[in-house]
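Page 42, continued from yesterday. The earlier attempt failed because a stray header line got pasted into the input along with the sequence. Redoing it now with the clean sequence only.
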Amino acid sequence: MEFYSKLPKGVKRKIQYVFELIKQVDMVPKKFLAPMAGYEGLFEIRVEYQSNIYRIFCCFDKGKLVILFNGFQKKSQKTPKKEIEKAEQIKKEYFESKHNR
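This time it went through. Structure tokens are written below.
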């Protein structure tokens, strides 16, 4: 929410559009949602707005529920390793806490 709250309105609208697409379409185009190669179960939601690129890491829980992790504005071709590591850690913590309930 911290990342999202600081975004311009236009970016927020585009993110909402992509979320609705993910909810409603069985086969979401890779342009909007793609698996992270080499990272089991980790996906990235892809949003482009006015030549800016945004990424939000997520995963699925039981094939249906999308769990959102961290988001960032991408400023280079390569996804920052620290953002991937952060997403992996949040994913691990989510499933551990769910298992321990």
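Notes: The chain has a mean pLDDT of 92.
Reminder to self: strip header lines before submitting.
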